[in-house]
Amino acid sequence: MEFFVFVCAALMVLGGAIGVVLRPNPVHAALSMVLTLFGVAVLFVAQEAHFLAAVQVIVYAGAIVVLFLFVIMLLGVDRAENLRTDPVTVQRPLAAVIGIGLLAMLAAAIASSSDALQSRGPGIATATLTGDTDTNIRELARAVFSDYVVAFEVTSVLLVIAVVGTVILARKVKGTVAS
What we know:
Layout: H1 2-22, H2 26-46, H3 50-75, H4 91-112, H5 114-118, H6 135-147, H7 149-170
Helix pairs in contact: 1-2, 2-3, 3-7, 6-7
């Protein structure tokens, strides 16, 4: 039975991933990504990681994909734009200054917390269940927001980059037809 669940979940993940890459319509690609994320959640359940499966469905398949769909719909991929005309002339230099400032803040945060990057916490394995059923969740929260906060923040930066990439990829040059 476990092998059957693994094969079905693996087919969901692979089929959704191929759909994300091959679908020309961005909305259909986002829905294929939902299939991939649900397949990963099924794999988490098969490994008895129910909390991670719930987070996978709620955060990624729910919130992040809805954010992507909102950005795609907000852009209006059915209409073309002239990319050579900037509506605000100061927009690009201001974006460059803000980007450099954010990179400098990230570098300063990494430099100031380099000692935290060298040490490892005890992790979830040391949590003991003494009648308190929230011990694992508390230990996971402590690990994510103290020992692994840099990785957590890098993940948030990657999600922002993914949204910006979605915006750039969804823009059409005037004269092209949306599929």
